[in-house]
Structure formats: structure tokens, C-alpha cells
């Protein structure tokens, strides 16, 4: 999961822009997973290898060219959720309850 090719496309600004633009369209699971990973990556306790995996996945998420175009209704975000879930699985031991809580709070602001 350490695909540094996609990591170079990640920036904090592109992440927030993508989330805000596609929050409702992408769906709760995609956005919540991306937010959990984001907060985990921002945590100083998260090891460097885990941050690399997370930023690579988030880089894929914000990349405008996907394996499955995001504009395809119903399937457009399936590749994104696959990449995000793979990252979440690989770094899961470093995801704290506070990361999940921060993600949930941000999600409620956007989707509820």
C-alpha cells in the first residue's frame, strides 16, 4: 500500500477541496474513511510508514484520474473506497478512537 506515486498528488488543500466538493456524492463510507485516515496521518504518534500508506491512499482519492471515473453513478467511487479501506486495514492498529470521533464530527457538519 506504499504507492508513493499517488502520494505526490496529495496536499492538504486538495484533500479538503475534494471532500467538500464530493461529500454528498461520494457517500458517507468513502468520506468517513478518508477523514479517519486524514486524522490518523495528522497524529504525531502515527509511525512514518503508516503516514506514507495513508498519504498514498489519500493521494489516489484526490487524483482526478481514477481507474473508475468518479462521475459514473453507483460505481464511480468503488475504486476509491477500495484503496482507502486497504490503507485503513494496513494501518488499523494506529487508528485511535479520537480519529474516528473527529471524522464523525466533521461528517455530521457536512452531511447531516
Automatic annotation (TrEMBL):
It is a multi-pass membrane protein. It is found in: Endomembrane system. This is DUF1232 domain-containing protein. Keywords: Membrane, Transmembrane, Transmembrane helix. Residues 50-85 form the DUF1232 domain. GO terms for cellular component: endomembrane system.
Amino acid at each position: 500500500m506504499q504507492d508513493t506515486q499517488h502520494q505526490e498528488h496529495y496536499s492538504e488543500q486538495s484533500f479538503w477541496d475534494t471532500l467538500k466538493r464530493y461529500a454528498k456524492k461520494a457517500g458517507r463510507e468513502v468520506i468517513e474513511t478518508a477523514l479517519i485516515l486524514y486524522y490518523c496521518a495528522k497524529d504525531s504518534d502515527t509511525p512514518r510508514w503508516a503516514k506514507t500508506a495513508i498519504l498514498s491512499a489519500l493521494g489516489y482519492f484526490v487524483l482526478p484520474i481514477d481507474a473508475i471515473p468518479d462521475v459514473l453513478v453507483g460505481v464511480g467511487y468503488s475504486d476509491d473506497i477500495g484503496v482507502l479501506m486497504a490503507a485503513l486495514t494496513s494501518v488499523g492498529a494506529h487508528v485511535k478512537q479520537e480519529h474516528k470521533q473527529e471524522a464523525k464530527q466533521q461528517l455530521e457538519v457536512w452531511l447531516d
